[in-house]
């Protein structure tokens, strides 16, 4: 319980605080920012909707709703995958990349303030090891 209860508080409180700050700055929740950041790190800033859902731990319906909202802002573009009408690509646009580059320094500073500035270098290494042990390269639900 001594480890579990603080973890539960982190899992709930940290995303809420990150959401609050990003909504103030750019009007989007943290999970939308994570989708954009994930796209920014990909070749050609593009992924299939399925791969983006997997990498951001989003359900297909939640991802579709998010991508629609991000498309309306001009930050992503969606297109069909060739002749396969069931699959779509989503690409981070130049405007989306510009927004990320503008917001990233503030977001990184906020994450540092909330998490990393409170930890020693050894604790940061431990956090990385713990996170990798829990999540690893697989989906959390595949344990």
From TrEMBL:
The lineage of its organism: Bacteria, Bacillati, Actinomycetota, Actinomycetes, Propionibacteriales. It holds the Pfam family MarR_2. It comes from the Bacteria. It comes from Nocardioides aromaticivorans. InterPro entries: HTH_MarR-typ, MarR/SlyA-like, WH-like_DNA-bd_sf, WH_DNA-bd_sf. PROSITE patterns: HTH_MARR_2. Residues 1-136 form the HTH marR-type domain. This is MarR family transcriptional regulator.
């Amino acid at each position: 319980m001594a480890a579990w209860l603080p973890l539960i508080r982190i899992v709930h409180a940290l995303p809420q605080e990150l959401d609050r700050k990003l909504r103030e700055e750019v009007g989007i929740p943290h999970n939308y920012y994570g989708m954009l950041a994930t796209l920014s790190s990909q070749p050609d800033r593009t992924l299939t909707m399925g791969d983006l859902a997997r990498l951001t731990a989003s359900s297909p319906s939640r991802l579709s709703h998010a991508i629609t909202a991000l498309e309306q802002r001009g930050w992503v573009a969606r297109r069909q995958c060739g002749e396969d009408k069931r699959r779509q690509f989503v690409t981070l646009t130049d405007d989306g990349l510009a927004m990320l580059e503008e917001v990233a320094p503030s977001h990184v500073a906020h994450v540092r303030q909330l998490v990393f500035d409170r930890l020693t270098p050894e604790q940061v290494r431990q956090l990385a090891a713990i996170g990798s042990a829990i999540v690893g390269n697989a989906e959390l639900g595949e344990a």
